[in-house]
Structures are given as structure tokens and as C-alpha cells.
Amino acid sequence: MPDKKDFIIDDKARAPKSTTPSKVTIPENTEAIGALIAVEIDGHKLKVPMGTTILEAAKKIGITIPTLCHHEDLCVAGVCRICVVEVEGMRTLQASCAYPITSPINVKTHTRKVRRARRHILDLLLSNHVGECYSCVRNNNCELQSLAKEYGVDFYRFGKRTEPVHGKDNSSYSIARDMDKCILCRRCIRTCIDLQEVGVYDAVNKGDKTKIGMFLDKQMSEQICINCGQCINRCPVGALKGNDPSDIVWDAIDDPKKHVVMQTAPAPRAGIGECFGLEPGTPLTYEMNTALKLCGFDRVFDTNFTADLTIIEEGVELIQRLYGALVEKKSNVALPQFTSCSPGWIKYIEHFKPEMLAHVSSAKSPQQMFGAVIKTYYAQLHNIDPADIVTVALMPCTAKKFECNRPEMTDSGYKDVDFGLTTRELAQMFKEAGIELPKLEKTPFDNPFGDRTGSGVIFGATGGVMEAAIRTVYELVTGKKVENLFDHADIIPVRGMEGIKYAELPITEVGPVPDIIKHLIPDWNWLKGATLKVAVCHGTANAKKVLENIEQGGKLSECHFIEFMACPGGCLGGGGMPIPTNEEIRKARARAIYAEDSESTVRKSHENPDVLKLYQEFLTEGPCGHKSHKLLHTHYTARGKKIV
Amino acid sequence: MQAISMESLQKDFTELKAKYGDDRSALLPILQDLQEKYRYLSDLILQETAHTLGLHPVEVEGVASFYSFFKTKEQQGKYVIRLCQTISCDLEGKANVARQLENELGIKFGETTKDHMFTLEYTNCLGMCDQGPAMMINDRLFAKVTPAKVSKIIADCRNEYIKSDFPKVVPSDVKKSGPILEHGVIAGEGLKKALEMKRPDIIYHIRQSGLKGRGGAGFPTSIKWQLAAAAKDEQKYVVCNADEGEPGTFKDRYLLFNHTDMLLDGMTIAAYVLGATKGFIYLRGEYLYMKKFLEEKLQERKQMGLLGDNILGKEGFNFHLQLRMGAGAYVCGEETALIESLEGERGEPRNRPPFPVDTGFQGHPTAVNNVETFIDAALICAKGHEWFSEHGTEQSKGTKLFSISGHCDNPGIYELPYGITIREMLKEVGGEDAKAVQVGGASGQCIPAKDFDRAIAYEDASSGGSIIVFGPNTDMLKVAKNFMEFFTEESCGQCTPCRDGNPKLLEGIHKLEKGRCSYSYLKELINLGETMQIASKCGLGQSSANAFISIMTNFQSEVLGRVPEKE
Fold this sequence. Notes:
The complex is a heterodimer of chains A (about 650) and B (about 575).
Chain A: E1 36-41, E2 44-49, H1 54-60, E3 84-87, E4 94-95, E5 105-108, H2 112-127, H3 143-150, E6 168-169, E7 175-178, H4 187-195, E8 201-204, E9 211-214, H5 230-234, E10 240-242, H6 246-254, E11 259-264, H7 266-271, H8 285-295, E12 299-302, H9 304-326, E13 337-338, H10 343-352, H11 366-382, E14 389-395, H12 399-404, E15 419-422, H13 423-432, H14 454-457, H15 464-478, E16 500-506, E17 531-538, H16 540-551, E18 561-565, H17 583-599, H18 609-617, H19 626-632
Parallel strand pairs in A: 1-5, 11-12, 11-14, 13-18, 14-15, 17-18
Antiparallel strand pairs in A: 1-2, 3-4, 3-5, 6-7, 7-10, 8-9, 16-17
Helix pairs in contact in A: 9-11, 9-15
Chain B: H1 6-20, H2 27-38, H3 43-53, H4 57-66, E1 79-84, H5 87-91, H6 94-105, E2 118-123, E3 135-137, E4 140-142, H7 147-158, E5 174-176, H8 189-196, H9 199-209, H10 221-230, E6 237-242, H11 251-258, H12 260-274, E7 278-283, H13 291-303, E8 320-325, H14 335-342, E9 366-370, H15 371-383, H16 385-389, E10 399-406, E11 412-417, H17 422-429, E12 436-439, E13 445-448, E14 466-470, H18 476-490, H19 496-513, H20 519-535, H21 539-543, H22 546-554, H23 556-559
Parallel strand pairs in B: 1-2, 5-11, 6-7, 6-9, 7-8, 10-14
Antiparallel strand pairs in B: 1-3, 3-4, 10-11, 12-13, 12-14
Helix pairs in contact in B: 1-2, 3-4, 6-7, 8-12, 8-15, 9-10, 12-15, 18-19, 18-22, 19-20, 20-22
């Protein structure tokens, strides 16, 4: 199977020029390009590839230089100046994060001048940092606080502002902002513009009036924001946080009349351990079930169940679109079909490319399908008044908070999902309840949605939805095991952290049409000899490139199905996941997710017995049938870019 | 005044894109034209400009809010009065003019009259330091304004300047010229000689002359040009830094008007040396009244074959020069900030390395030089390097134009050789009784009388040309306050030491004014100033504490323990 081949998209960085990484084309010694350069750092001699920054070089020999504006996911800024070091022969100190080594230098990282400068910088930042650590969501996980401790700050040298000047902005369902805590590192700007191409933030004004602004100082809820929360994950302090509903969730738990049902998405289980001091990538799926019961949740289900359901609904929708276009020769079929599980992505396309909304699968996200199923099927099954059911969703995501509050997400007759909790917020609830998560016993998920497949789990990683879809579609169409094509059913071409991935799947033979969709498709002959073309992207900056490529009739316009995830790395890099984040951490979380898939007994969505049962007992018209459409599908709003 | 509608804007954008292009570097000129037409940048203008150029609205707002000449949120008056608040005008009685302006208009600074006729604002240095207090009304300059003249000026505005007594152009005041100002070279002469030379020979002459950057940093011009010439790129740029914003500097204003051809010769020679085909003159927004003149000059040179394609008949030597206006941001005098500004960004200095000679405008090798540097280079090509280097000191060759203002009998422009002592200079200008001299503008150092034997030269007291004399009765704390207010406002705001440090120093001055600052806290602030000097990102931040440190060190008994005056 050919993969990732000759696939190039123009990759012009949209970052402000001053913050794009340094390019070095004329070193003093041109023969040294690509060569190793000798440097001396605090007396250690080492050789580094040309262009390595002083910060990276120091790291190699175990010297930690403090940073605040630097972030591994983002381009260089060099603005906080906390990372300054002395370079022999230079009058001024140099920002080690922004200084590429191009000739032999001698660096000293903690001289008197350097220590004093860093202390002054901390003193300055602290003097404008309003708020007390103990009333801050980032207490004990704050980069400014850690540095203050490391540098022995025990008084405010230049005083301390106590009165807020900006005030708090809690207008958004997803992201809360407290600019009085902001230290102007500009990570949120670089995240929002470079990684996500959304552009909610930029620096406005100059001099001492400089602040991180949003357009015309309008509230967060009025901005063109996709709620992805990537800015929260990269904020070094508590200036940005999720809008936390845990107090109301506790109220529901405490209310004996309420039947509180939790669904847990795949990504949080791979990351929540980080909130308890464990290494990234330590899965705590079943310990978390125990903890949720200890907290008082009445039922704990796995969102993977509806992930499998999504694959069926979305897969059948794809097949219908293909049939419409290829066999019925309908002219109005939008292909490629786009996935719809990432609410950040949905809001992105609603704002930035509403003219392409017809491409988006109408299938709801697994979170919302679950909510609708719980307040209908589950309520009937257990004879509970849906009005008394409170559905809570544990998500890696801040955009899910917005999604569950969309007015159209009430198909059960009630608000389908009442609250979205992030991984961080649930960890906080566990701590409040005195639960030491890693030490708990394991508990399985509750029935009737206890069965789920490995395909559902991998929804948490970029490429996971596509992998699950390929497993199912291939087997439904060919009647053959996907293992014939991919060892262990691991669809490697769609895995990994590459921004845009592309794969082709030749369908050389076809089998009989399975019962579940017999009423929709007479046979598969029309697919014989076809090649299914798919692509996967994550991070909305990549989504933008993909959309532009399709619009321009590029290679991706030939695709049949494309997976879009708003967050870099997919859900495991979501805006509700533990802080910090970087590619290494995201890869570790991905390993945990793929391991859980690998260990699953059932690994393909269409083999999930509980999903099949749901179609037999409840959604009796089958996938994409009338009831499915009412409960499991949705519509979108062309929002556009205008800020009013 | 024009009404703003979607339709009118769409029409504007079609024209503006044709004029300035549709990439981000068109942003400033587009905003400038729209600001002029609609007198402010409304929500709709900001958003539509963003969508036209493929930017996010907040990015456009970020740019608009960075430059003081742009106005968002509310409409400006038909006449925008900008009174200079910088040190020299301050010493000449700006406060009284300000008060009278408020009295006449019935508004405070920062406000607009109800009839939308007048907006009253402060601005930083108009380059009229020897003829202060100065103010600017739209593109017109007013020098030596007194409170008594204020009502007449306002009345003139109301009459659209018909029968105005005030001169349309305020001439500069040259008090002493030397070999540079009396060069006797005609347009194209230096350029012609340069084109007869091989490129390395031009660099050789510049190197031998010892010419260093006249903006103040003193980087050898020959090395800058050589590096940019050696850089491998299809496209290179030559940029003239005409963003003369250093308080107390006004010599470029004179040069731009009176030695324009030498400047353009110099830029064209640089283009030839580098292999650059495009260039910009980045003219500060405060010099808007020169725009038309310079644009006509460029046109004229094109007709004379001194700009454009095949210059002076030299096959394949093409150089196209554009005038770009700044919009009121001091920091844009820093070369990387200037390049950012040209690119349509906030004028925030870049990380260095890489340097502009390698990665400049839109990533291409770019040589940025001061107005005077280009003129010197053109004259060196015309007259030879010996002519230039016979003046000055070993490390500071040539003569230099100085803008001298403050408490002296004869403020104005002086051409003097490098190496001259402050004492000699004061004698020249009639300011012998000075208690201190600010050398190098707000970012320079304040030299007390005991050190008047120091020489003005790169190796000693370095200056880009600004000399401000403080007479015996000057309150040095007020001087320090003026400078710190300036930097607090003009810091680009990106790096911590400069953005947050300058306000702390200013707060310290407020404490000193009240007589409530301990010696130990003053020492803390001086230490902080020293950190700012070495830890800030750019030259502005690194030099913003200079004056504070020298005043607080040299005039300690004057600033400490004050008993505040009662209002």
C-alpha cells in the first residue's frame, strides 16, 4: 500500500517574522554548514550541530536554563529574557533560546550578572502578577511559581500590584481568561496563530500598555475562537484555564434524586496519571472507573462504545456518498467526506470555511451520541426518567464544553450531555475526594455499554478514527480480514505525528453486502478495483492547508475521506489534557492508547456486540435510518469570520 | 468626512491593493490611507483589512494599536494637533503651550472636540528641538509656539489656513557647516564614479575612509555592505533609516530636504555594491510634510536616469526605490524593528543573530543605513576616502552632523569633527555654564560638568548626533522623568526588562519627587537599570536606563531627600 508519498503542501510559516526560527545561511565559516561546532558551556566542552541553540546545547550536558516564553511546540520568541546567559566577547547577555550556535563560543550560564538579571526579570514579572498562588488553578504546576522558588524569591523587590486591572473573562463555555496573571510570554499568540491558524490573540498597544489582546477587547465568547484550549495547555501561568463545571457536577452527585452517568473518552485515561506524578503514557483506565465510583457517579461508561457507533454511522454515510456519486451519478454529493468528532474542528470549519460544510459528516461526535443514547435507550431500558439523568462526559477537550451546550444538541428531548469535564478537572475532583488514583484497584466499565473495541480506543490519537474506519469499511466491503493487508490490523500509514498523512487502500475484490446495510446498498461491484484514498490531519493550521489544497483541486481533492482533529496529536493533545504538553509527552500518550487497542479482544467497531445489539433493539431501521438521523446525526451552522 | 460602508471599503481595497500589493507589507500604507480618508480605523475597517490581506483581525488591531498615528475606536478631528512632549520642547516651555491649547479648545489631551474639528495629542520628538516648543497639525509644522500664539493657530485652522501668518515650511537652522555640508558635489556625481569602479573597490574606499554608521551604533559601513554583498540571494534590499526619532535629533530632517540627491546617490551605490534591485526609504510619520517632496524627487531621479532600470546607462543595473511612512513609533529606528514595520508588523525588534545583512526584509539580505551614512558614502565615492578620513580621530573618522538644543545661545545643526570635547562644543554653541550635557539623545548618557573634557567619538561619548544642553538651573530629576516617561511609552513592549523595567524606574522617580525614596531602593533601581542594559532584547531597551543611571549616580544629592513643592 503506497503511503505518504510525494505529498507536499506549501509550508509557509504564518508566524510573525520576528518569532520565526532563526535561519542561518552565512556562517562565518561556510564550510561548517552541517558540521559540528565546538562549544564550551560552564567549562564543559562539547560539539553540537550547527544552528543548535545554546539552550538545547546546555540541556545535552545536564544544565537546565530557565525558560518562560520558550515552548518546544512553538517558534522562537526570545521575549521573556529569563534564559539569558553570558557569551564570551559579547557586551550584553544573550537569550539562549534564540541564539543559534554558528561558530565556536564560550558560554557561562550562571555568572553573577546572569543570576542577577534572572532575579530582576522574575521580580519584574512578579510585581505585575496579580493573585495569590493558593487561589490559582495552576498552584504547584506553574512555571513562574517554580522559578520563583528556584531563585529564592522571598520578597517583592519592586513591590506587588494587588488590584486587578483587566478583570476576569468567564464568558466562554470553554476558556476562562484572567489577564491580571498574564506575564506576556506570548505563547498563546503563537499557539493560536501558528499551530491553530485561528488568531484570537495578538499583542496590542505598546510600551507599558502592551497586553495580550483579543479583537477590540470583546469577550471571549464573542471572538472567533474554536475552543480548542491549546492556549491553555501552553500558558506558563494561570492566565488561561478551562471553564470548570466540577462544582455543579458535585452538586448533581450529592443530589439523591439524580442519576449521574459518566462517559469517559479514550484520551484522558492515557494522561490522567500525569496529574498524579506518573510518567506520561501510564494508562489508568480501570483505576479511573474505581475512582469515579468512589466519587459517587452512578454509572461509568466508555465513550468508545459510541466511537464504534460513530464508525458505523459515519462509515455508512461515506458509503452512501460514494454510491451516490459513483453509481447514481448525483452531482451534489460532497466528497471527500470530513470527520465530525472533533468539536474544535467543527467550529473551525463553521467559521473559516462554511462553504465546505457539506463535506462534513452529519454524524454527531461520540460524546453527543452517547448523551442522546443514554437519555433515550438507556433511560427506557432502566425505566429512569431522563429528566433525572445527569450525563457527564470526561473529555480531553475544552471544545466539548461548548459542543454539549450547542442548542441543537437536545435530540433526546433534554440536554443530551449536561457537562463536559476535562482530564485536569476530574483529577482535581479525585484529589478533593482524597483519591490516590494510581493505588486503586481496577473496575470494569458498566453495562449495557461495557463492550467496546480497540478501534474505539484509538479515536484518542491522530489517525485513530481513520484507522478504525479503514478496519471496518475494508471488512464490510471485501468480506476479508483487514489483517490480510496490515499485520495485526495496525494501519501504520495513518499513525504518527506528521501534520498531514495520506494513504491509499486498493479494493481488489468485493464480498457480499452485510445484513446491517443490505437495505441501503444492493452490491459492492461498483467498488471493485477502486482505490480508497484517505488523509489525516491534526492541528487546525494543517486543516487549513488541507482545505486549501482541496479548494485548489490539489491531490487531496481526490480523497474520499479525511480525518480532521483540531488539536496537535489528536485528542491526546487536547486542550483539557494535563499540562505541560510537548511532542514527547503526546507520543507517550499515543503509545498507551495503541497498547490498549492492541490488548483488546475485539478490535473492530463493526464487531462490537453491544453496538449490534443497539441496532437490533433500538435503532431498528439500521445505520443512517430515521431514528439514527434523529438521535445520532446533526447539522452545522455557517458562522463566518465576522466579529460583531 | 466619508461615511464607511462595505461598498466604499471594497472599492478602496481594490485601489489600495493595486497601489501597494496584497501581501502583509502593504498593511501600513493601506491603514495610513484609510486613516486619512475616514479619520479613524473603525471595527469594520480593521476586520475588512484583515480579511483582504489574509490576516486575523486582531493582528491588524495589534499593528494599528502599536503606532501612535493610528486611531481606532473613535474618529479623530479634522485637525489633529500633536504637541511635542520630548525633553528639548519640555525645557522650552511646552507645559504652558499645552495648558493654553486645552483652554482654547475646551478639551484635554487625548480628546476630540464635539464638533470633530480638533483632536489634541502629545507626540514624541518632532525633530524641531532647536525651535521648540513645536507642534504638528496634520502635516504642518509649527515652531517656537508660545501660549499667546495658540489661539491664532487654532483660528487659522478654522479658516483652512487662508491668510495664515505661519510659514508653510519651517526651515532648519544650520549654524556651522564643514566638508560634508559644503561638498559641492552634484547629483549623480558620486554614483557615476562608483559605477566606474569594481564593487570590491567601492567597499575598499568605504573601508579606508573609516566610515561607521551615523545613526549612533557605529557599525563599520564597509563590513555591513560586504556581508550583504556576500549573502547569496536573488533578491536583496537597501533601506534608508529616515526614522529620526531620537529625542534631540533633527539633522536628518535637514539632510532629507537639502541633500536628497546625495542620499539617493548613496543608496543607489549601496544597491550596486550589494546587487540589490529594490529599496525603501522609511520616513518617520512625523515627517509627513516631506512625503510629497521626496516622492517627486524619486520621480525626477527616475527621469534623469539615476533610478529605475539601467541606471546611468549601465546595462542591467536596476534599482527601484519606494517611500514608506512610519506611523509614530520611536522603536522603529532600530533596524530590525524598522524591517518588521516595513513588513506590516508591529515594530518589534527581532532576535539577532541572524542579522539583516543575511535575513532582512522578508527574509532577504538587507542593508539598513542612516540618512547621513548614505550621504557620507556617496561623498566618499565622489571625493575619495582621504578627503573623508582626514578629520576625526583614529577610531572615529570624519566630521559629523550634530543637532544641538537645550540651554545654549545658538541651538541648531553643527558639522564638527569627531574627537571634539564637550567643553569645546559648548563654547561653540554658547552653553559654557551648562551643568550637564545629554549626549546621544534619550538613549545616550548624561554627562556632568566634571566630565566635559570627554570627547564625542564612538570610543568615548558616542552620539548619533543629539546633544542636549542642560543649563545651571535645570532640575535633573525632571530631565530623568521626561526620559523615563518617553521609554515607558516607546518601549515596544515585548521583552520583560524594557517593558516592565522602565515603568519601575519611572515609579522610582515619582518616589524621589515626593522625597520618599531610600538610598537603598535607589541603588536597587540602578542595579535594575544595569540589568536592563545587558538583558534587554534590543538597543532601545539596552540604552533606556542609561540616562537614569547617569543622572542618579551623578546628581544624587540633587535628587534625594526632596521636599515636594505644593501645587
